[in-house]
Specification:
single chain, 263 residues, alpha/beta, TIM Barrel, eight-stranded parallel beta barrel, two-stranded antiparallel sheet, 11 helices, globular
Length: 263
């Protein structure tokens, strides 16, 4: 039976063919690069990567009524260290134009959140203002992961490498990644458990990389769990997109790091 991830990647390959033939309509304006790694180096509290996400395959519609620029500005005003923008259109109702608009509206680093499997996607993200791109180990073999990681770095981008289990983490560590995300969601089943961060977090910390816990984080207790497992930051979308009090929600997530906050 075909998994959700396999379905997404099948569509992505079709989209890539179109991208390679139709790139002229996208901005080539050079926008300033901003570093999430520098922020994490100096942080004393959990860094929040606040995500703009309209919908997902597992949750359906999350919030279609919010303007990406207004939401991004509120994220920044309330302490977000970076902003993640879903650019996948087919499964998340995202858009590369959301990324462009958000980058121009805020002064914090912006992550292009997509299923990247080809150089052309990295080129597009860089041209449209991304500071960081996501590489998902579950979507790539080891050679391709390293090739895309090095290519993104050559374009001046920081790279968040996402893993879910120990074999994927081994691949991420071989790349020399400085920024590793542990996705608490299994992309094959879309089931979520914070135990993924608790299991893998100590290994990431021992490697010297910064750790971001992704998915399934809804309240301060969840943040405390992943912080205690070594997380430097969290990536949160659904909870913030549905929040009735964004200021309170974001401020509640920014709890002190364990110890001195070092890697």
């Amino acid at each position: 039976m075909e998994t959700i991830l396999e379905r997404i990647l099948k569509v992505k390959k079709t989209e890539i063919k179109y991208l390679k033939e139709n790139q002229e309509g996208f901005s080539k304006e050079m926008l300033p690069k901003r570093s999430l790694l520098n922020k994490l180096e100096k942080a004393k509290e959990i860094s929040v990567i606040a995500e703009f996400k309209r919908s997902s395959p597992s949750k359906g519609i999350i919030n279609h009524s919010i303007d990406p620029v207004e939401q991004a500005k509120q994220y920044e005003e309330n302490g977000a260290a970076a902003i993640s923008v879903l650019t996948d259109e087919s499964f998340f109702n995202g858009s590369i134009h959301d990324l462009i608009a958000v980058k121009k509206a805020v002064n914090v680093p912006v992550l292009c959140k997509d299923f990247i499997i080809d150089y052309v996607q990295i080129d597009l993200a860089a041209r449209c203002g991304a500071d960081i791109v996501l590489l998902i180990v579950a979507a790539l073999d080891e050679m391709r992961l390293i090739e895309l990681y090095q290519y993104a770095k050559s374009k001046g981008l920081e790279v968040l490498i996402e893993v879910h289990h120990s074999q994927e983490l081994d691949m991420a560590l071989k790349s020399g990644a400085k920024l590793i995300g542990i996705n608490n969601r299994n992309l094959k089943t879309f089931q979520v458990s914070l135990s993924a961060t608790e299991l893998l977090g100590p290994i990431v910390k021992k490697s010297g990389a910064f750790l971001v816990s992704e998915s399934g984080i809804h309240n301060q207790q969840d943040v405390e769990r992943v912080r205690n497992a070594g997380a430097n930051g969290i990536l949160v979308g659904e909870a913030l997109m549905k929040s009735a009090n964004l200021k309170q929600h974001l401020e509640g997530f920014q709890i002190p790091l364990v110890g001195d906050g070092c890697k």
